[in-house]
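quick one, two chains, predict together pls
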Amino acid sequence: MSNIDKDTADLLKTVTGLDMSAFTGAYNIRSNCMSLGRQSTDNVKIDSKTDNPGLDIHIAPGTKGEEVLIPACVTKAGVDDLVYNDFFVGEGADVTIIAGCGIHTETGEPARHSGIHRFFLEKGASVRYVEKHIGTGSNETKKTIDPQTEAYLGPDSYLEMDTVQLGGVSSSVRRTRGTVGDRATLIIKERLLTDGDETATTDFEVEMNGEDSGVNLISRSVARGNSYQAYRSNIIGNAKCTGHSECDAILSENGRVDASPELVANNRDAALIHEAAIGKIAGEQILKLRTLGLTEEEAEKAIIDGFLK
Amino acid sequence: MLEIRNLSFSAQGRTILNDINLVIPDGKLICLTGPNGGGKTTLAKMIAGVEKPDEGRILLDGVDIVPMDPTERARAGIGYAFQQPVRFKGITVRDMLNMAAGKDLTEEEIADVLREVGLEAGAYVDRAVGTHLSGGEIKRIEIATVLLRHSKVSVFDEPEAGIDLWSFNNLVRVFENIRDRRDNSLVIISHQERILSIADEIVMIQNGKVGLRGDRHTIFPRLLCKNDNCDPGCPRNANF
């Protein structure tokens, strides 16, 4: 991957948290609509799609402990990148998938990345999916990241999605759809920070079709400056299942949050819970940290950093 | 030395503190006691800078700290353990202890301070200081944050609340050890005999005023008075 420029390398490091030169697993590095490098392993095959831009990633049944890396970067203004990636996870596999996108632009032209990911988990498969989004460079340039995720969880499977967007993205619409089978579990953790005039929309909809299926949605967000966030979640219990969603948001300065959680129970044995809290940082929290010697600004930063950790 | 001079405070038309005068000498353990609603917690908040008095001065080593905000007072040498500790989402026990110490503590240092308050580090250090901790657990972490600061004057507001007997005995020993080192002062608001019995001085705060005060050998027996014919100044006669 010697053809990677500095901006791309910096973004890759931020998005993946990995030293690419030491990475031995399967990967595909996408930058400005092109593949900069790809590697498959014995258990993880990565192939280009023939009908759309994007990848088919096949993870063999029984694969254990492998990491799959599928990050994307945009470093040129005016780029509008659209990619379709499908993950087919074989029976009993247990892997970590690291994706995410970074946009770095310096000129006035807008840049955008739309990643459409679909997950098909076979019986007993287990996946931890880590996705980080970030925008860097000029604040004058509009940077848009619109991820869409569809997850189909087979019997006894487990998918944990850990998604993070911590600033620099002008606009994002995150749409996630899940269908959860018998005894399968879907966990989605979202951490979101918006500032300035940024906007972010989160839209979760999960259908609990399997007996004893479970879902847990946890969203923590901070809206600063004049930013605006919209949160919508809908857990639909069509079988004996458990569903829980938790939406916590901290408002700072003129930040705004609009949260609309929904629960739909179509089965009398569906047990669904929602918790939500939106508000500014509690004054007593600031006060406690000030009695430890922190300034008001340091206290607020510590509280927000902890909240989003 | 901490000197409180002519301190008064009112809220919603009610006098909470009325011309309080008090001296906390260096290296002494002072217990504030008295009936609920008497003004003890308000006085503690005044010292920490959480509340501002209407009148009066609070001198730390001769410097009036009333104009200082809570951050400046903490840095000047005031420690304060809240009666009802604050809960946070996401901030871990380790984070809190590091912030209190002003540095990244070693695993051993964290284990030591948590042991002092009766907690086993491995079970707590990476847990959030939030709703999943019991009242007693979070109270002990609150106390640990103040112990770590080694402040010139540390104020503990009812440290016994919510703490089991074993941990409480341990905590009393910690307070005794600090007292015996005679380098920093402790102000402990308490109704507990065990804590009152280790005080150098007991001060009763009642109706916003300083009432009985003196060394524990003089005051403590009076607080425990069972004599139906005791003199009118006895705490019993003040519905204590």
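Residues 2-238 of chain B form a domain with the Rossmann fold fold (CATH 3.40.50.300).
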